[in-house]
Design goal:
By secondary structure, the chain is α/β, with parallel strands linked by helices. The protein is built from twelve helices and ten strands. One of its GO terms (cellular component) is cytosol.
Length: 295
């Protein structure tokens, strides 16, 4: 069965937002897009969790998406993060993304106000009716405080332009239920679960690790698709300690930005309330990067 969101199959990199002197580093952001184009990445996703969207002003949020679309210039797809816990705000941001040329939008589950399942449905339906772009539901109960149940996601999949789900529940049963009950494309929202999800019928990943090792993530997905299961497993087990250690040291994107700095790709500090990685954790991260062969 052809799935609706195969345009976003493969590797989508959840871009960090580089900062310099307290402002968005626009030249740095352009370079990040160029680097992903050069790596062969399928899509980039600005203004997600990794892009520190909660601390971007409205103007910054819109500017980052516009700049990424401009720099992508059709060379790589753009899945713009336009979610909000205000339906009106999600619609406004999604309309702006459409205006500047995004290929689709990534809509995080409304957080903090904890809607009922019908509220989730009506929220996404309202955005889908207001904006014609392909839309990806981002289900991450660890951050949004409530799960969008698989029955609700399958129901959303009946709407024409809701095409995929970024699955960040960690539940293989939930992923299986969505794949069974809809023709939505399922993308992993956790780097360490990409291969298991591919095995269930998932189509790719919205990746944090792809900021530093996009070619390895691409190679793992390609190996699986080509039926080279052993190679896919080897790459999974190579990537797994990096993903576990990098993402487990502190809240994303704190360790990622620290790793990028260690690798000579400085994207600046994280914004408060996030804080810099501690010296002890930086030492651990340095060892992880050395073990992987990056340092």
């Amino acid at each position: 069965m052809a799935r609706k969101g195969e345009m976003f199959a493969g590797l989508t990199v959840a871009l960090v937002t580089p900062f310099r002197d307290g402002k968005v580093d626009e030249a740095g952001l352009r370079k990040l897009v160029d680097d992903q184009v050069a790596a062969g990445t399928n899509a980039v996703s600005p203004c997600g969790t990794t892009g520190e969207s909660p601390t971007l002003s409205h103007d910054e949020h819109e500017r980052v998406i516009a700049l990424v679309c401009e720099q992508a210039a059709g060379r790589i797809k753009v899945m713009a993060g336009t979610g909000s816990n205000s339906t009106a705000e999600a619609i406004r941001l999604s309309k702006k993304a459409a205006e500047v040329g995004a290929d689709g939008v990534l809509l995080v589950a409304p957080y903090y106000n904890k809607p009922m399942q019908e509220g989730f449905y009506e929220h996404y339906k309202a955005v889908a009716e207001a904006v014609g772009l392909p839309q990806v539901v981002y289900n991450i109960p660890g951050r949004s405080a409530k799960n969008i149940e698989p029955e609700t996601i399958c129901r959303l999949g009946e709407l024409e332009n809701i095409v995929a789900v970024k699955e960040s529940t960690g539940s293989m049963d939930q992923a299986s239920q969505i794949l069974n009950g809809s023709n939505l494309t399922v993308l992993s929202g956790d780097d360490s679960l990409t291969l298991p999800l591919l095995a269930l019928g998932g189509s790719g990943v919205v990746s944090v690790a792809g900021n530093i090792v996009p070619k390895d993530v691409l190679a793992m997905i390609a190996a699986w698709k080509e039926g080279n299961i052993e190679q896919a497993q080897q790459l999974h087990h190579k990537l797994f300690p990096l993903c576990r250690d990098m993402l487990g040291l502190a809240t994303n994107p704190i360790p990622l930005k620290a790793a990028m700095q260690l690798l000579g790709k400085d994207t600046g500090d994280v914004r408060l309330p996030l804080t810099r990685l501690s010296e002890a954790d930086t030492a651990n991260l340095t060892q992880t990067l050395k073990t992987y062969g990056l340092l």
